[in-house]
Specification:
The complex is a heterodimer. Chain A is an alpha+beta fold. Chain A is built from 23 helices and 29 strands. A seven-stranded mixed β-sheet of chain A has the order 3-6-1-13-10-11-12. Chain A has a six-stranded mixed β-sheet with strand order 4-8-16-15-14-9. In chain A, strands 19-27-28-29 form a four-stranded mixed β-sheet, sandwiched between helices. In chain A, strand 24 and strand 25 form a beta hairpin. The relative contact order of chain A is 0.12. By secondary structure, chain B is of the alpha+beta class. Chain B has two domains: 3-78, Beta-grasp domain (Ubiquitin-like (UB roll)); 89-159, [2Fe-2S]-binding domain (DNA polymerase, domain 1), CATH 1.10.150. Chain B is 34% helix and 17% strand. In chain B, strand 3 (51-54) and strand 4 (57-60) form a beta hairpin. Chain B starts with a strand and ends with a helix. The model of chain B has no long low-confidence stretch (mean pLDDT 97). The chains are: A alpha+beta, B alpha+beta. At the A-B interface, helix 1 and helix 20 of A face helix 2, helix 3, helix 4 and helix 5 of B.
């Protein structure tokens, strides 16, 4: 019975947020708490010759000044996230990957590998004093040649980023689907292009932060971290410090955005845990924004050399891609982004032949990790740009070529002839992509715009419309858990393993459980982000929580409902099949006066002589379920961008924007729309403004918000949304993930719209962001080639 | 460390505190007054998360020293909720319109808007967008914040305030 699912409930978490009473890591205050600050490398690559900390240690209220050498043999090395790096055997057989083990100490030893790497940690009475002390530490560096360009990094004889490896190619794989040579032989044309998605940062408005505290009596370590993966933090802190996992509690309290890079393990989490134990006092570290720009991990940074074989009517026969991913100084997530790129390359297009080669290059830059989209926006940009180019080569409308190659609805479920990274066959479970495209054409008034463009240009107004589609594997495993119980008060208490960084878990999972128990939303309390609540948990990333934690919450609730009916049957002496529940009361359908309330039932289930739980069942009203998805489920979207380009300034204004998305069954429409709009805003950043820039020495040039531009309310219009609701066939709720779809196609759609607006100039956009200076340069280039200026 | 005694009226209550002269107003509010609803997002005056009212005008508390606020009135997000726990029209509108996701930037937006709506009680969409253009939100894409401000301005007008 779905009373709650499908409704736009106001969020349960809002009250504390709007009243300023949420609790983020920086709001935690413990007795006797000290504060840490870090000295970070100012070189991209340098040998540490010496560190003189005597003056810092002499300062009042400085408790410790720690270097990497102090930790050798005491704190293990950070390395690949194992749970994200394993590949099923059959995928290994198909792609024959090379994946080299690489490491990073929590504080640099011997040499530094990127600007922003932690070198020295200072613990003092407060942050002001810690920074005073930091200024007194003298570090003598011997600069080494920095490897900045990924292609240079891959050349023989390039300086090594990771000294224990033979070269800088950290990983490699080749994925062949069908025969590229055959596709070329059948084709009329082969088009080539290089498409670059530069480095960006996720920039949650809350920076990272950690508080750690150790209790001697119970040998127990408490860690609060602004993380997306509390269970992984617990696992790795235990592993690197040689501790027992269950003597560690990791809590992700209110977390102020994450978007990917707050996942994984960071040096500060390990080091603060270590220091809290060593110094016998709680220690806090709150990242400042300048630290964040170099110390928090970056993303994207892919360069694709793409070839597409096609016939003269615009039918695409095959795609060949050779790409390099610049992973920075260490690869923590193995093939996560790179294989995502492979799995999402063809998206909604029916392309039988696909041949992809990937090389992952180590460079002297901040590590590169998944960020909203995680390898998908890069390839959607490459693919939809080249489809647009094919159309313009053939003198066809890009829309015509896109529709010609889109997967017909009647071919669903559709197989891409390869595996997803979780080992499942890559088969789109449900959806209707041509319908979505038609909806986007209709909503955007495509025909009207085409009909008027010429006239507008004559008036000096350059308006263009661009499209992009994507299909996204969402709800990736391996699992997520939920534990549900009935409190003595009658309240339904639901713990989920995946924590929230703003995704509305307390509301949407309350809707899922509330429906099973027939209670209103206020009778369900959802808790998350705490490793003591459940034995296992994965985290919130990869558009996976609604699918995995949602399904786990549903199935755990179903289990508990059955048990409750059994216990009630025992108490009321009625067969459980004759009972139902509504608003916290269990009653017989035919005799409503025969009833028991949730608090009464909870009391009847307490272990002891009077326990009324039937023989063979455990006492108590509690159930746990771990949901293991068979494979991912495929959401999809079509984006349409209408832009106006100022040909004098190069400024791109988004006039209108439309997103048609299929997120499967929708639990809370308001939350889903919010996710799509939010993803869209980040897509605008990637499309038009954001770029992490390093100079030739690996020095970060975009170290503040004066240099790294985030979209504001002036740059982000409303994305008008259209909805399809093709239920997932891979989980009991029918839901699909929605967290990333807004971000994935935005850069491609906007780039195509800019190209369309500037059609008379024949500009080619093959690099993001499409910033005003880049548009200006493109226009200058075409003008210098004496392309006729339209009058 | 050099210290100084300052007197500030915080959320309507007069307080006299001894502060280090170098202490930021934002740190003073959070660490010394323990009003943690004011958040720090960039500490270089761009993101607006730390916005409070200084003598009734929106200001970035990360760009001021505590000693500069001596003798001033400071209002933080904690001042908005009514004594009975009911919400200010802006708070209600933010929740009603899903104008927040992670909630971290929200106090800064609301304090910016308290000042703005006092100046302009019936703003257009364009004026709202301009008013919040100095506050960064990374979750919502701003659309629902604009809607919330429209609702709040109407609610405040009805209140006659």
């Amino acid at each position: 019975m779905a009373n709650l699912i499908g409704q736009s409930f106001r969020r349960k978490e809002d009250y504390r947020f709007v009243t300023g009473t949420g609790q983020y890591v920086a709001d935690i205050r413990l007795d006797n708490m000290a504060e840490a600050a870090f000295i970070r490398s100012t070189y991209a690559h340098a040998r540490i010759k010496s560190i003189d900390r005597s003056a810092a240690l002499a300062l009042d209220d400085v408790y410790a000044v720690i270097t990497g050498e102090d930790l050798v043999g005491k704190v293990g090395l950070m390395s690949e996230m194992e749970s994200h790096c394993r590949l099923p055997k059959h995928i290994e057989d198909q792609i024959k990957p090379i994946m080299k083990h690489n490491v990073e100490p929590v504080l640099a030893t011997g040499k530094v590998k990127y600007v922003g790497q932690n070198v020295v940690c200072i613990v003092a009475k407060n942050r002001y004093i810690a920074e005073d002390a930091a200024a007194l530490v003298k570090i003598d560096y011997e600069p080494l040649p920095a490897v900045v360009d990924p292609f240079e990094a891959l050349k023989e004889g390039a300086p090594l980023v990771q000294d224990d490896l033979d070269d800088n190619m950290q990983a490699y794989f080749h994925l062949p689907v069908g025969s590229w040579d055959e596709a070329v032989s059948k084709a009329d044309h082969v088009i080539k292009g290089r498409f670059t998605s530069p480095r960006v940062g996720s920039n949650p408005i809350e920076t990272r932060g950690v508080v750690a505290s150790y209790d001697n009596r119970t040998d127990f370590l408490n860690i609060w971290s602004s993380t997306q993966m509390p269970f992984e933090i617990r696992h790795y802190v235990a592993k690197l410090l040689g501790l027992v996992e269950q003597n560690i509690r990791v809590v992700a309290p209110d977390v102020g955005g994450g978007f990917g890079p707050k996942g994984g393990l960071y040096p500060e989490e390990v080091l603060l845990a270590y220091l809290a134990k060593q110094l016998k006092r709680p220690v806090r570290w709150i990242e400042d924004r300048v630290e964040h720009m170099s110390g928090a991990r970056h993303s994207r940074d892919q360069i694709h050399d793409l070839e597409v074989a096609y016939t003269k009517d615009g039918t695409i026969l095959g795609v060949k891609d050779d790409f390099v991913l610049d992973v920075g100084a260490i690869n923590y997530f193995a093939l996560t982004c790179a294989y995502n790129s492979a799995a999402h390359f063809r998206g909604a297009y029916k392309i039988p032949v696909f041949d992809l080669t990937c090389r992952i290059a180590l460079t002297n830059k901040t590590p590169n990790v998944p960020y909203r989209g995680a390898g998908r926006p890069e390839v959607v940009f490459a693919m939809d740009r080249i489809v647009d180019m094919i159309a313009r080569e053939l003198g066809m409308d890009p829309v015509e070529v896109m529709l010609k190659n889109i997967i017909p609805a009647e071919e669903m479920p559709y197989s891409q002839g390869m595996y997803y990274k979780d080992g499942g066959e890559l088969i789109y479970d449900s959806g209707n992509y041509p319908e979505a495209f038609e909806m986007a054409l209709e909503m955007s008034r495509f025909k009207e715009i085409r009909a008027n463009q010429e006239q507008w240009r004559k008036e000096g107004t350059y308006i263009g419309i661009g499209f992009s589609s994507n299909v996204e594997g969402t709800g990736v495993g391996p699992f997520e858990g939920a534990k549900v119980s009935i409190d003595p008060s009658g309240q339904v208490i639901l713990h989920v393993g995946s924590s929230s960084q703003g995704q509305s878990h307390e509301t949407v999972f309350g809707q899922v459980a509330g429906d099973v128990f027939g209670v209103s939303l206020d009778r369900v309390t959802v808790k998350n982000g705490d490793t003591v609540a459940l034995g296992y948990g994965a985290g919130t990333y990869a558009s996976r929580s609604a699918v995995n934690a949602g399904s786990a919450a549903h199935l755990a609730s179903v289990k508990l409902r059955e048990k409750m009916l059994a216990v009630a049957g025992n108490v009321l002496e009625i067969a459980p099949e004759e009972l139902t529940m509504q608003d916290g009361v269990i009653f017989a359908v035919s005799q409503p006066e025969k009833k028991i309330t949730f608090p009464e039932l909870a009391a009847a289930a307490v272990p002891g002589m009077r326990c009324k739980v039937p023989e063979g069942m455990d006492p108590g009203l509690e159930a746990t379920h771990y949901f293991v998805p068979p494979t991912v489920t495929y959401s999809s979207s079509v984006h349409a961008a209408v832009v106006e380009v100022d040909i004098e300034t190069g400024f791109v204004k988004i006039k209108n924007y439309y997103i048609v998305h299929d997120s499967g069954r929708v639990i809370n429409p308001m939350v889903v729309e919010g996710q799509v709009q939010g993803g869209f805003a980040q897509g605008i950043g990637t499309a038009l403004y954001e770029e992490v820039v390093h100079n030739e020495n690996g020095q970060l040039l975009t170290g503040t918000y004066m240099d790294y531009l985030l979209p504001t309310s002036m740059e982000v219009p409303v994305a008008v949304q259209g909805e399809q609701e093709y239920y997932s066939t891979c989980n009991p709720l029918g839901v699909k993930g929605v967290g990333e779809s807004g971000a994935i196609s935005t850069p491609a759609a906007i780039a195509n719209a800019v190209v369309d607006a500037l059609a008379p100039f024949h500009v080619k956009i093959d690099r993001l962001p499409v910033s005003p200076n880049r548009v200006f340069d493109l226009l200058q280039d075409t003008r210098s080639e004496e392309v006729m200026m339209p009058k | 460390m050099k210290t100084m005694e300052i007197t500030v009226t915080v959320n309507g209550k007069k307080r006299t505190e001894t502060v280090e002269t170098r202490m930021l107003l934002s740190d003073f509010i959070r660490e010394q007054l323990r009003l943690t609803g004011t958040h720090l997002g960039c500490e270089h005056g761009v993101c607006g998360a730390c916005t409070v009212l200084v003598n009734g005008k929106a200001a970035r508390s990360c760009l001021m020293l505590a000693v500069q606020a001596d003798g001033f009135a400071i209002d933080t997000v904690e001042s908005l909720v009514r004594e009975d726990g009911s919400l200010h029209p802006l708070q209600q509108a933010f929740s009603d319109n899903h104008a927040l996701q992670c909630g971290f930037c929200t106090p800064g937006f609301m304090m910016t808007l308290v000042d703005f709506l006092q100046e302009n009680s019936n703003p257009s969409e364009g004026e709202i967008r301009e008013a919040i253009s100095g506050n960064l939100c990374r979750c919502t894409g701003y659309a629902n914040i604009v809607k919330a401000v429209e609702q709040a301005s109407q609610a405040l007008a009805k209140q006659g305030g």
